[in-house]
Task: inverse folding
């Protein structure tokens, strides 16, 4: 009996498939912890040490690093909570980055901050390290663990929505299902997201949406593979 069932088991094990993971919006926040570590390094290299109470604190010699880091966080809040089409987000980010760095190079930020009541923005090295490390840990837990607790499996003739823990699996026939992608935000999808985008599955004619998988990485390569799979008819095991 073992030898009779072995060929069929081998065919099942080698069924081609594509696994699709949707990611949370926090995936796009990797520049915050990356730039935070860069700011900590620059503060370590060019900072000045002052005494706060009974503790030495290492600060940047000017407010530029603190202003830049604050604007990075504000920019990420805007980018991950609004949808922009085409070049709009890229132009906005590049323009904002150019102005921010130009003002820092010209040392205009101290003068600008004084317009708002003698404000200063200083962050010590410990702040950069603490915030960046905390955000990195959260980023890894969400992206690597939580985002992988559910996924979509595409096989010839079948789509299944599967869960690692405690949920019921859903299954759909690929006949009549149309796959489409949305990568309209140039900066977020291509610069921050490594070719990410949203994958929509809907019935032919757009009468009903089966599911939308948000922030799928390397979407173009996966779409190409999916088109090949749904064009393949599943093999029906023959009776002995």
Result:
């Amino acid at each position: 009996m073992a030898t009779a069932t072995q060929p069929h088991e081998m065919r099942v094990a080698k069924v081609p498939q594509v696994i699709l993971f949707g990611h949370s919006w926090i995936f796009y926040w990797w520049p915050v912890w990356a730039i935070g570590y860069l700011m900590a390094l620059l503060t370590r290299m060019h900072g000045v040490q002052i005494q706060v109470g009974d503790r030495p604190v290492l600060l940047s010699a000017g407010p530029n690093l603190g202003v830049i880091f604050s604007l990075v966080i504000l920019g990420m809040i805007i980018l991950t909570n609004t949808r922009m089409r085409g070049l709009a987000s890229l132009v906005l980010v590049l323009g904002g980055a150019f102005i921010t760095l130009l003002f820092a190079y010209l040392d205009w930020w101290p003068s600008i901050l004084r317009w708002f009541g003698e404000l200063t923005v200083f962050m010590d090295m410990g702040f950069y390290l603490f915030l960046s490390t905390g955000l990195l840990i959260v980023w890894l837990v969400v992206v690597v663990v939580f985002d992988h607790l559910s996924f979509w499996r595409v096989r010839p003739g079948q789509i299944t929505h599967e869960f690692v823990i405690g949920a019921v699996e859903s299954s759909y026939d690929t006949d009549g299902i149309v796959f489409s992608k949305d990568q309209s935000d140039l900066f977020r999808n291509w610069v921050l997201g490594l070719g990410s985008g949203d994958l929509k599955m809907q019935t032919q004619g757009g009468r009903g949406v089966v599911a939308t998988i948000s922030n799928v990485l390397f979407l173009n390569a996966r779409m190409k593979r999916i088109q090949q799979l749904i064009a393949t008819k599943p093999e029906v095991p023959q009776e002995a």
